[in-house]
Amino acid sequence: MKQCQSCGMPLSKDPSGKGGGSEKDGSMNTSYCSLCYVDGTFVYPGTDVREFQNRVDQAMKDNGYGWLMRKLTRRQIPHLARWKK
Questions:
Q1: Does pLDDT of 74 surpass 80?
Q2: Tally of domains in the chain
Q3: Residues 6+ apart with CB under 8 A from 21
Q4: What is the 3-class SS of 2-66, one letter each residue?
């Protein structure tokens, strides 16, 4: 299962229906979802992984995800390609 390397969402569940974000030229980027990466830039341009984890957690909570799924998602974010240093 391929997942967004920023937030961890499975790309098969990408809300755009295209399975990834977009580059400036309109081509698809299959490393990041359409919620994280649009027109060649990150929607959240910051570099603070904890702040990003909080944003993802709140978005998941607002969409009805339970605490366990949110906890697992928060835990994996620092290990994704975008956040690894």
A1: yes
A2: 1
A3: 28, 29, 31, 32, 33, 34, 36, 37, 38
A4: CECCCCCCEHHHCCCCCCCEECCCCCEECCCCCCCEECCEECCCCCCHHHHHHHHHHHHHHCCCC
Q: Per residue in 44-63, pLDDT tens?
A: 999 999 999 999 999 999 99
Residue 68 domain-assigned (yes or no): yes
6, HSE (Cβ side, Cα atoms, 13 Å): 26
| Domain hosting residue 22, numbered range | 11-79
Quick count: other Cβ atoms within 10 Å of Cβ 48?
11
